[in-house]
Every structure is written in structure tokens, then in C-alpha cells.
Design brief:
The structure holds three protein chains of three kinds. By secondary structure, chain A is of the alpha+beta class. In chain A, about 20% of the residues lie in helices and about 40% in strands. The radius of gyration of chain A is 16 Å and the shape is globular. Classes of the chains: A alpha+beta, B alpha+beta, C alpha+beta. Strand 8 of chain A pairs antiparallel with strand 13 of chain B, so a sheet runs across the interface.
Chain lengths: ~140, ~325, ~220
């Protein structure tokens, strides 16, 4: 894991509404919170975090971080932000969630290729609704 | 701080206008699309009265001379920050050295012509007679009382608490609060003092015919082209106070809608007044486009203003919530 | 339009316009000043702006219904006593005709007077500043000789320079800065009428008096 991954992780955390994430390896423990990054050389462990990291890195489905209306395209645009097959970078918007007049991006947590859009344009969705498949780019 | 690196004519600093100086002959000025300016400020967590840059000729480019959150609203100008494309009506953070570019408005879904650039903390130019709006006629307010040119630098004001979070947007009120008549963008009009002195044909034309925005339209007034509006008999009115939205009809019969830089007084007969709540719609109508007038009542006009205020309040509430949830940095 | 009753109309939802009955004269204008002074204290009014024998009241926020304000206006007008203002007298040299008076020919054609007569008649009275408007520092003047009255132009001029002395209908005035105008420009002068850094920013205010002096007539 490189420091580039950290920004991916923090983007993902913001998207998922997670305030804090702890990662533990054989010789390190890393704690991320929305206020910044803290590295510890403390070996005290939490094996669950490895599991969460693996899940996240291999994740192929981006879920709704909030209740809203899922939009494939911006209301002023005719083209979808990221139709199936689009190569996207981490942090790029895959779609939008509309809450009243507010538009919140559905963000790619990793570099990858957009798979199926699982929900039709302009569909109301609940928290956690699976929205977009993302095939992660091959490991660095 | 930002530096203008490319601008066409008549990009100006505007806020919500200068109130209380009419008695010295000073018109209100202020953003032609006041909802778009307010929305940009809301995205940033700014006071709604903070000043921004109104842009009407493209391309337009600025370089950020320090890290700064900004918002772009109004016409969809295919904005990009360096090579990152930005959605319209969006707030974003820029790093020192980055360049924001706005291109010619894309008008397929919404025919709009003016864009607004807001900065976290607001564009900091001196308050003159209670406002930061550029008074072009009086050459004061804004930046030295004139339109912006390449090389100009604008400072951002003190940052509001919790501001500086980017990466979300608002849906334009043109889509949330649509108003059309016969397939054309419409604005609501209250009849004015001399309305009854116009011919029946003039009344019919006013409400039922399209009006083309001529190239002689600007921040002072929109000169419209359509069926000539004639009085039953000529009248000379005495000069009196007027407001943006007044539809004056000079003797040639072609109406002029007074806009934000309008004179605070006039003497041409008035057939009607575009209501304050709909002036932003007209302010976005591009030259060459056609619009319609729709007759309205006092109560409807008040309700329209309240609807705008509700849209802004809801945008403010949700933007503040979202900023609070995702950002504490 | 001249009747014996004042007329009140709305300017969209932004303002009310009160128009006094009768011919334009100073006594009526002095009652307008008095009415303005009273109305600007009403809570729903942001600003009371005198015009030529009329008064615009801009709203701080539009009222649910205008009737109560209209009733109050009628009552206040009935009770209004002319407000005498002892203002300054300012002398202003004018160059009549030439490049600075591009519409002199139109005024000559309409009035049937020659340029010397127009200059003489125009500079004879002491004008009273009735109101400010149009653009920063611009004064509406009362007292023009009606032999000079010339209708506003059919199509407004896109820009006239600052200092332009012009006639529109039964009125005359001096532009304080360059800008569009529907009036007929007959001469030019140089005077700074407005400085936003001063308090008040306008050189002249209602009740002040203006005396034009013929500096030159360019035939």
C-alpha cells in the first residue's frame, strides 16, 4: 500500500460517510479519520480492519451514501457522467444523488472501469442502495 | 486572491445591489441573475449578499494565486479546473496556480447567457454606498468602478467558518422553478400606470406575441423587438422613480425592459413591470432568443417571490448540512 | 393625465408610484418633499424618492396588500404642507450648440427658435432642483420656459457625455456622467456633480438652485 492509496481511502471514507478507519499490518497500524491521517507504530491490533480493507479494495459496487434520487447525468446535460465502459479515476463522479436542490456526487473510490449502472436514471434510492459497478484497475 | 487571465467585455463584480441611494440618482446595480449569485454563495457557505463576478462574454479564465474554494453558477460554460471538467452549479477547491476556464455557454437544456464565479468569503472589493456592485454609469463600486480586464487581481474576503469544502452542487432553479408560455421562456408582468392607455392591439401583442431580445440589450436594459406597442393618444409623463423590470415604451413602440443597471428614474410611458421574482429569468435570456410575457396578479407575484426565497432557504439548509457532514477540515 | 386627484400605481412588487395632480410647479414639489420626509419613516418603506411632482416609495419588502399604504399616502398628501428648503445657488457656464449640442438643430426645428434665442431663454431662469434621478448626481430642474419644450427622442441615444445640457419634453437637465439618454442635447458644461467618497455624495440636492451662464454659442 502506497501513500497514493491514502487519498483513495479518504475519498471512499467521505463517500461512505465513515469518519474513522483503522488498518493494521504486520508492522504498522494506520488510523484515518476525516480530520487527517495518523500513523502509529503500535502493534496493538484489530484484525477486523484487514478484512474491511480487502473488501474495499476488491469492491465492485458503489452504494448510495444517502437517500436521494440517483442521476446518471447532470440535470443540465444530455450525456451521462460515466456510462458503462468509462475509465474513471479515483475521486471522479460516477453519477449524482439529488436531495431537493442539492446534488451530491457518487464518487469512484478507486481507478477503474465503470460496469453496469444498477439503478435507472432519476430513480429514488435509499441509503446503501447499490448504484454502480466498478471494475478496479489492476494493482499497482 | 485570483488573477483574471482572459476576459471578454463587461465581466463585473456584483452583489445583490445598492439599496437606499436612489435619492442621489444611484441605481441599484447587482447581479442580473440574483438567484445564481445567491446559489454560488450558498454553496460556499458565504453570506448571500457576498459579491461575485458576473461573466457574460466567454472564454473567461482566472488563475488562483492561493488555495481557495470557489463556486460557479449561472449559464453552463463547460467549466474546467486545469484539465478537470466541473459540473455546472458546483463548488470546488482550487490550489495555488490552478486555472479555471469557462467556455461559451451550452444552451441545449437551459438557454442562459451569464455565469457567476463566487469565492469563499466573497470577492473583497470596497463597499461604496453600502454595496460592492459595480456602478458602471457612476464609475464606482466593484473594481475601480469598471469592468474587469486581464491582469486584474481580486481578493477573497475573510473565510466563513466551515467554508472551503468542494465537490457538490445545486440543481439550477431554471429547472426546479420552470416558467414557459407557448414553449418559450416566460416572465410574469404586472400592468403599470399607463397600461390602460395602450390600444387593444398593443395589449394583445404584449401578452400573446413572442419578443426577441435584440443585440442592443445589456445590463441597463433589454430592448425587445416585436409588434409595436402604440398608445391610444400620445402622452408625456413627468420623470419619476422607476425600478428594474419596468417595461418602458419609447415612441417607436419597441419596449425596453429596465435591468439592474437601469436609471433610477425615467419618463417614457410604462405598459407593465416584470416582477422582481422573474427578473433573473430575463437576465439569463441570450441575445437573439425570444421570450413571452405572462400577465400576473399582485398575489401571484408575491407568491413567486416567496417560492424563490424558499428554494434558496432549502438550498442553504441542505448545503450547510452536507458541508457539515463531510467536512470539518 | 392631469386630474385633480393624485394617482397611485404599483411598479411591479418593488415600489409604489404617487403622482400629484395638476401642472408641474414648485408649490406641488414642496408638498412632495414633505410627503417624502414623512413616508420614508414608514416601516415597509425602504426609500422615498421624489420625482417631478411625484414620489416613488420602494419597499423594504413587498406588503401582502398595498391598500393600507395607499390610504396612508392619500391622507398624508391631504395633510402635507409645502416644505420650504433654503438651498445653495450654483452658477454653471454652458457652451450652447456645436459638438457638445448635437440635437440643437432638432430643438430649433421643433420650437421654431434660433440658437441665440434658445441659449438666451434657456439661461434666463434660476432653476430649482426638484429631484435627483436618472444617474448619480443628476438633477431634475423646474422652471424651464415652455417655449423650449421638445419631445423626447423617438429612439434613445446610446450614449451622451457627462456635462451634456439637454431638454426632454417640458424639462431640462445636465448629465453628470456619460450614458444613454432619450433627451435632446443642446449644450455642454463641466462640473463634478457626484463623488461617492463624499457624504452626501451628490453636489446638489432638492431645493438647491442652478443658474446657467452662456459661456459660448457655437452656431
Amino acid at each position: 500500500m502506497s501513500f497514493d492509496d491514502l487519498s483513495d481511502l479518504s475519498a471512499w471514507m467521505a463517500e461512505a460517510g465513515i469518519d474513522e478507519l483503522e488498518l493494521t499490518g504486520p508492522s504498522f497500524r494506520l488510523r484515518l479519520d476525516s480530520g487527517g491521517v495518523h500513523a502509529h507504530d503500535d502493534l496493538a491490533d484489530d484484525r477486523q480492519s484487514d478484512t474491511r480493507l480487502d473488501q474495499m479494495l476488491s469492491s465492485k459496487v458503489i452504494a448510495a451514501s444517502t437517500v436521494g434520487i440517483f442521476l446518471h447525468r447532470h440535470p443540465l446535460h444530455e450525456a451521462a457522467l460515466a456510462p458503462e465502459g468509462t475509465q474513471v479515476r479515483a475521486g471522479q463522479a460516477l453519477g449524482l444523488l439529488r436531495i431537493g436542490p442539492l446534488l451530491v456526487p457518487v464518487i469512484a473510490p478507486l481507478d477503474g472501469i465503470v460496469g453496469a449502472l444498477l439503478v435507472a436514471h432519476a430513480t429514488p434510492v435509499g441509503f446503501g442502495t447499490r448504484l454502480v459497478e466498478l471494475h478496479p484497475a489492476s494493482a499497482r | 486572491m485570483i488573477e483574471i487571465i482572459a476576459t471578454g467585455a463587461l465581466a463585473t463584480v456584483q452583489d445583490h445591489g445598492r439599496g437606499g441611494a436612489l435619492k442621489w440618482g444611484v441605481g441599484a446595480s447587482g447581479a442580473l441573475d440574483n438567484l445564481a449569485l445567491a446559489a454560488g454563495n450558498i454553496l460556499l457557505g458565504n453570506d448571500e449578499h457576498a459579491a461575485g463576478v458576473e461573466i457574460q462574454i466567454f472564454p473567461f479564465q482566472v488563475r488562483f494565486l492561493e488555495d481557495c474554494a470557489f463556486a460557479i453558477t449561472g449559464a453552463d460554460c463547460g467549466a474546467s479546473l486545469d484539465d478537470l471538467p466541473l459540473p455546472p452549479w458546483w463548488v470546488q477547491t482550487a490550489s495555488v496556480g490552478q486555472i479555471l476556464s469557462l467556455g461559451i455557454p451550452r444552451q441545449r437544456i437551459w438557454r442562459a447567457s451569464r455565469a457567476y464565479l463566487c469565492l469563499a468569503g466573497g470577492v473583497d472589493v470596497p463597499l461604496v454606498l453600502g454595496s460592492r456592485s459595480t456602478q458602471l454609469r457612476g464609475t464606482f463600486g466593484g473594481l475601480e468602478g469598471r469592468p474587469l480586464r486581464s491582469g486584474d487581481r481580486l481578493r477573497a474576503g475573510a473565510r466563513a467558518n466551515g467554508a472551503g469544502r468542494g465537490g457538490f452542487g445545486l440543481s439550477p432553479p431554471a429547472l426546479d422553478l420552470p416558467l414557459t408560455e407557448g414553449g418559450l421562456p416566460a416572465v410574469r408582468v404586472l400592468p403599470a400606470a399607463e397600461y390602460a392607455q395602450y390600444t387593444e392591439a398593443a395589449h394583445q401583442a404584449l401578452w400573446n406575441e413572442p419578443w426577441r431580445v435584440t443585440p442592443q440589450s445589456d445590463r441597463y436594459g433589454y430592448r425587445l423587438d416585436g409588434a409595436p406597442l402604440h398608445l391610444i393618444a400620445p402622452i408625456e409623463t413627468r420623470s419619476h422613480g422607476i425600478v428594474p423590470g419596468v417595461i418602458q415604451v419609447p415612441p417607436n413602440g419597441q419596449p425596453i425592459v429596465q435591468m439592474r443597471d437601469a436609471q433610477p428614474s425615467g419618463g417614457y410611458p410604462k405598459i407593465g413591470v416584470v416582477i422582481e421574482a422573474d427578473l433573473w429569468r430575463l437576465g439569463q435570456a441570450p441575445i437573439g432568443s425570444r421570450i413571452r410575457f405572462r400577465q400576473t396578479s399582485w398575489d401571484e407575484a408575491i407568491a413567486a417571490g416567496e417560492l424563490n426565497a424558499r428554494w434558496l432557504a432549502e438550498a442553504r439548509r441542505l448545503a450547510d448540512l452536507y458541508r457539515g457532514r463531510t467536512g470539518s477540515s | 393625465m392631469i386630474s385633480d386627484q393624485p394617482r397611485i400605481s404599483v411598479l411591479g412588487t418593488s415600489a409604489l408610484l404617487f403622482e400629484a395632480p395638476g401642472e408641474t410647479d414648485l408649490a406641488t414639489q414642496e408638498r412632495i418633499w414633505a410627503l417624502a420626509k414623512e413616508a420614508e419613516c414608514w416601516p415597509e418603506i425602504r426609500e422615498a424618492v421624489p420625482g417631478m411632482n411625484n414620489l416613488m416609495l420602494s419597499f423594504s419588502r413587498p406588503p401582502a396588500c398595498c391598500k393600507p399604504i395607499e390610504d396612508r399616502l392619500h391622507a398624508a398628501w391631504t395633510a402635507a404642507v409645502p416644505m420650504r428648503i433654503e438651498g445653495h445657488l450654483v452658477e454653471l457656464p454652458v457652451v450652447y450648440g456645436g459638438d457638445g449640442g448635437p440635437h440643437m438643430a432638432d430643438v430649433m426645428a421643433h420650437t421654431g427658435l434660433d440658437i441665440d434665442q434658445i441659449a438666451a431663454i434657456h439661461s434666463a431662469p434660476t432653476y430649482v432642483v426638484y429631484a435627483l434621478g436618472s444617474h448619480p448626481g443628476y438633477c431634475y430642474l423646474g422652471g424651464m420656459d415652455q417655449r423650449l419644450a421638445t419631445p423626447r427622442r423617438k429612439t434613445p441615444v446610446v450614449s451622451i457625455p457627462g456635462g451634456a445640457v439637454s431638454i426632454g419634453g417640458a424639462q431640462t437637465g445636465v448629465s453628470a456622467s456619460a450614458g444613454p439618454s432619450g433627451w435632446n442635447t443642446v449644450g455642454s458644461t463641466s462640473m463634478r456633480f457626484f463623488d461617492p467618497a463624499l457624504d452626501p455624495p451628490a453636489l446638489l440636492r432638492p431645493g438647491d438652485r442652478l443658474q446657467f451662464k452662456i459661456a459660448k454659442v457655437i452656431r
